[in-house]
Structures are given as structure tokens and as C-alpha cells.
């Protein structure tokens, strides 16, 4: 599941700064400060943000997820399709050796999320933002000892906290660090064709696996479940995300303030921000300049 995280990271980091310009652009604020040059905020001082602007920005992002960001090599995420084949095997209570091939992953629900303003914080050099996904479900074609079917894993109430650090150098903004945490409330799984000859056994085993999930969820949330494979995937995703973001910032010559300006334009759907229409079929062309300043 590196891709969802990559894209979410890529989009989120770009948007944390929205409220700053929104606040500065407020006519009343401008009126009050017109004769006094604004003090440069300290790099570590939390910046105020305008909640409705950020909400509008997220609405625009949800639409954009449907189209992807082809110019940054990011495909549509609604649903997200992963052309990845997982091959593994496990022993079922030392009773039965099961070899698993899973392919054609489809992930639903990445465009359904809510944002928690009360736990959001950003400065000119760092940002923290929590997002909650009520239902992320992954379907896959699975083959268990040669018996084919469609399995799924449903993740309920996933809370992702993203931390980003960035800095300006030569009038360009660079992301220097991405991190965060994932909390999971509940999970449900159904594995197809576990016992192809017995629907009853399959049902019993799916129920047993389902019952053991809360324990796995606890271990995962407590950081006790270290999935070596997953951490490798995610650390790869981190560098991919940072590279993608920095390339985008660079090719659009964005510094902090110009990025904020672009994000506000994006939130407001102004004509030169070129958002995609979430319901229209994608041609690619309409997206090319969404970050243009
Ligand atoms: C996987 O997806 C590809 C392309 O979408 C399709 O051609 C293939 O039949 C699918 N395989 C299975 C086993 O569903
Ligand atoms: C979660 O999403 C999946 C895929 O869209 C859907 O099939 C499932 O019914 C949803 N579950 C709940 C509890 O809403
Ligand atoms: C199961 O799917 C695989 C492709 O994923 C295919 O090669 C195999 O023939 C299928 N097996 C059966 C029994 O349909
Ligand atoms: C998800 O979490 C929120 C806040 O923690 C809670 O209000 C909500 O009921 C949860 N939803 C589900 C489907 O568990």
C-alpha cells in the first residue's frame, strides 16, 4: 500500500500552507496593516489558518484524486489500482500449507476523508496534519493453492498523521523530511477459497481470522507489530514522495509564499489553477497547469 500513502503525502504537504495567504488576503487584515510592514514570522511560530479555505482545498483535492496528477506521474486514486503481485505462503496451524498469490489490487475509499483542524499545526518550516479515512477497502484477486477468488481487507477509521519539514533555499521550497503515524480502529477480512471444497470450513476460518484482527490492530497501533516488508515499502515511498514533491515545487519555481498562493487558487477553483472536474472523464490536458502561478 505504498502508493496511497505516497500520493496522500504528496498532496497534503502541498496544502498545509493554504490558510496563511487566506488570512493575509482577508481585506480587513490588510486594511489594518497597510501602513505597517508586516513582521516576518519566526520560522517556528505556528501560523494561523482559515478553516473554510482549507476545507475547500480538501474538497478540491478529493475531486483531483479521481483524476490523479498525470504531470507528476500519479494515476487516479478512485479507485486505486495496483499492478502488483504478492506471492507468499503460510502454515495454517501446521495443518495445511497454503500458498497465496494475490494480484490486481483495487483500493477504494482514499477520496473519503475528513480533516481535524484542532490538531493541525503549521509553520514556515514544518507541518502536522491529521486525516481520518472511515473506510479503506482493498480487493484483490487471490489464488490459494490454485483456487481463485476475490478477497478483501476492510480498514475502518484509519487516522493518518502527517509530519513534514521543509525549508527555503535560493527562493525555492524544498521538503526535507516526511513522516507520520497510522492508527487503525478496526479491520475486517474475507479470504476467498480458503477451503475450496468446503464453504463451511472457509466460513469458520474467515470468522476466526476476523476475530484475531482486533489483536493485530492493537499490536499495530502499539507499534509492536513490526512488518519488515511494510516498513521497507513505506520508506521507499517516502523518498519517492519527497522527490515527486520537490520536482513539482522546482519545476513550478515555488517558494513558500508562491506555493500558498497557488494552493488558495486551487481551493477557490480560479480559472488559472486548472482543477479537474471530478465527474468528467480525464483527458490529461486539463490538469497540466494546476500549480501554475
Ligand atoms: C488483472 O487485471 C488485468 C488488467 O486489468 C486483466 O487483464 C487480468 O485479467 C486480471 N487478472 C485477474 C486474475 O483478474
Ligand atoms: C467499505 O467500502 C467498500 C468498498 O467501497 C464497500 O464494499 C463496503 O460496503 C464499505 N463498508 C462499510 C461498512 O461502509
Ligand atoms: C487462477 O488464476 C490464475 C491467474 O491468476 C490462472 O493462471 C489459473 O489458471 C486460475 N486457476 C483456476 C483454477 O481457474
Ligand atoms: C471513527 O472515529 C470517530 C472519532 O474517533 C468516531 O466518532 C466514529 O464513530 C468512528 N467511526 C467508525 C465507523 O468507527
TrEMBL record:
- Report whether Signal shows up as a keyword of the record: yes
In this chain, the stretch annotated as Disordered covers 27-50
Q: Name one Pfam family in it.
A: JHBP
Q: Which residues form the signal peptide?
A: 1-25
Q: What keywords are annotated for this sequence in UniProt? A: Signal
Q: Which InterPro entries match?
A: Haemolymph_juvenile_hormone-bd, To_sf
Its protein name is Uncharacterized protein
Q: Which organism is it from?
A: Anopheles culicifacies
